[in-house]
Specification:
The protein is α+β, with helices and mostly antiparallel strands and 162 residues long. It contains four helices and seven strands. Strands 1, 2, 3, 4, 5, 6 and 7 form a seven-stranded mixed sheet that branches.
C-alpha cells in the first residue's frame, strides 16, 4: 500500500528538478513579422489547471496516455518512495490498486519562476482508496516548463493535508 499511495498522487504530474533549461533566444524579428501576443498569468494558470485536471481524471481512470502526453521526458515525482521517473509513472498507472469515486481540486495558486517556468499549487481531496486504505487529502505542487511552446510537467510532489 505504501508503495502505491504516494506514487499514485505524485504522478499527477506530475515533476522536477527545477529545469536549468533557458528559454531559447529568439532571433530579432524582421520588420514584416508581427510580435507574438503576450500570454497573461491568468491564461497560463487556466492552461495548467486544465492540465492538472486531465491528469487527475487519467489517474481516476487508470489511463497512462495523458501522462505520456503531459510529462516531460526528464520529469520526476518525489515522494516517500523516493524519486520516480516518467517511465515509472507510465508503467504503474494502469495497474494501481486504487479506486477513485470522485475528487475535488481547490485553492489554486500560480507562481511564475521565470517566463518559461511555472509552479502551480493546489489542494486535492479524493473519495477513494488505494490498496483498501482511504486516500488522504493532499497539498500538491507541480513545476511546469515551457519548451517549444508547450507546457510540460517537470516535477510533482504531494504532502498530506492536516
Amino acid at each position: 500500500m505504501k508503495r502505491y499511495l504516494p506514487l499514485a498522487f505524485l504522478m499527477l504530474l506530475a515533476f522536477a528538478s527545477i529545469s536549468s533549461a533557458q528559454p531559447t533566444p529568439q532571433a530579432s524579428p524582421s520588420p514584416s513579422s508581427k510580435p507574438k501576443p503576450r500570454v497573461s498569468k491568468a491564461q497560463i494558470q487556466s492552461k495548467l489547471m486544465a492540465s492538472e485536471k486531465r491528469l487527475w481524471e487519467a489517474f481516476k481512470n487508470k489511463d497512462a496516455k495523458p501522462f505520456k502526453a503531459t510529462l516531460a521526458a526528464d520529469s520526476i515525482a518525489l515522494g516517500e518512495n523516493g524519486i520516480e521517473t516518467k517511465e515509472d509513472t507510465l508503467k504503474m498507472i494502469p495497474s494501481m490498486p486504487c479506486v477513485v469515486k470522485s475528487y475535488e481540486l481547490s485553492d489554486w495558486k500560480l507562481t511564475m519562476i521565470n517566463p518559461a517556468t511555472a509552479l502551480i499549487t493546489y489542494k486535492g481531496k479524493v473519495d477513494g482508496t488505494c490498496a483498501g486504505t482511504p486516500v488522504p487529502t493532499v497539498w500538491c505542487s507541480t513545476i511546469y516548463v515551457n519548451r517549444g511552446g508547450k507546457w510540460w510537467a517537470l516535477f510533482h510532489q504531494e504532502s498530506p493535508a492536516k
